[in-house]
Specification:
The chain is α+β, with helices and mostly antiparallel strands and about 220 residues long. The chain has nine helices and five strands. The N and C termini lie close together (about 5 Å).
Length: about 220
Amino acid sequence: MTRVYAVLTGDLVRSRVIKDACGEECLRRLKEILAEVGGDYTAPFSIFRGDSFQGVSSDPEGALEDAVLLRLKLIAGFDRDNSALRLDARIAVGVGTIRYLPGDGSAGEGDGEAFRLSGLELDVMKRAGRGIIVTTPWEDLNETLSIFCDVVDRTVGGYTKRQAEAVMLTLEGFTQKEIGDRIGTSQSAVSYRLKGTGYEIVLKILAWYRSQVRERVRLAATV
């Protein structure tokens, strides 16, 4: 049986500017968010070089959603809208097999197809100015996936802190009324905040990705 994983590798955007603006607070918040999203990963997220991170998930179907959630949580991570304090990240997801993972569960010294695809794409993303991408072993999927990731990237990248917070909670399954109760506002205010975010398109792309990868992982498991 062939086991398929997802490796998520990323780094903070404008990390030097962010660190100058908020010191260790941004690193603390990054650690909290990585623990929230990847707490049950095969290899939980670890931080390296100060502002880069990597984790290994045994649920490749949910990898794009995890990447989106990471970015939403970062963007929504501070108490006020301020461009100097806007956290965001580039995240490259590699889907595929893993040849080696250290016994201690750390991702940093792992090796295999998923690691290679994730690492290569992160380098490309920096040069291309992209914020999220997923690459799989299935070439027939990758071309469409690249377009959809670009749509998600441009959509999420344009959110304000308040919009990111509302979309994040929607993605986590809360109703508009529940979101209003959590953030101390009305349901109508939440609806207004979501208006124009294009979150419905993001949800459709995530559902499409999950179904596409689920079928391919199922076929791979029979090999």
